[in-house]
Amino acid sequence: MAEKREHKIVSASSGEARKSGAKTSQTVQHNVRPAPAKGNAGGLRFGAVLLWLLAIGFEVLALLVLFGKVSFTFMPVLYQLIAFIVLDLICVVIGSLLWKKANRIDPASERNRTKFWLWNNMGLIVAIFAFVPLVVLLLTNKDLDKRTKIICTIAAVIALLIGGAASIDYDPVSQEQLDNAMVVFGDTEVYWAPFGKVYHIDENCQALARSETLTVGTVDEAIAAGRTRLCAFCASNHNVTEVATDDAA
Asked: CA 191, CA 213: separation in Å to the nearest integer?
């Protein structure tokens, strides 16, 4: 049996803290009716799209400055371009984080492979549209002075790399995976650490030995928080074979 450890336990739904070990004995509830997904995926997606439109708007402003159609006389062209690139990047990244959060709450089905791919790569697509045209037009512009051209091109390429990397969902969840996990666990409480990609059935799982603070909630709350797989130790201890696990738990 795993050694009992003292943790600070925080509820995912209320944010309230409770005493460690207050509820440690539980059985995985197989084949129960899944609870409804929590969170406002529609609102998150609306926010993401709004931010992405702002990102494209900042790119357009940068292009207008580049071609001399717009000029803010209180600062040099270099600073104007850098400012719009930075604002573009901020909007792309925050929008992508909101979109990925929405995909955890309301994921696409793997049955429609095209939609599943688009839904989980939308942030990367937006990042490409938000920076690649700017990079190309910076490189081909013959009127911009060399220093400004080099600095702005490098800044736009770096923004593209950062925005693209931040927008990729490296472990996408499908509707089938979410439904399956909810059927297996139902309202069973699971735990997760501040960092990582897995959730746990046991508060005293050996993989949580170094975690002082744990969040507790239902499995759909864990997935919404980015903990998409069950800890392999917990799966083995509770004979759970129906959901995806992380062998490096």
From this structure: 10
DSSP class of 172: -
Task: Tally DSSP H helices, then E strands, for the chain.
Answer: 7, 7
Residue type, 115: K
54-90-120 Cα angle (round to 5): 80
Residue pLDDT tens, the chain, 249 long: 445 566 777 776 666 666 666 554 455 554 444 444 445 889 999 999 999 999 999 999 999 999 988 888 788 999 999 999 999 999 999 999 999 999 989 999 989 999 999 999 999 999 999 999 999 999 999 888 999 999 999 999 999 999 999 999 888 888 888 888 888 888 788 998 888 888 998 888 888 888 888 888 888 888 888 888 888 888 888 888 777 676 543
DSSP three-state, residue 16: coil
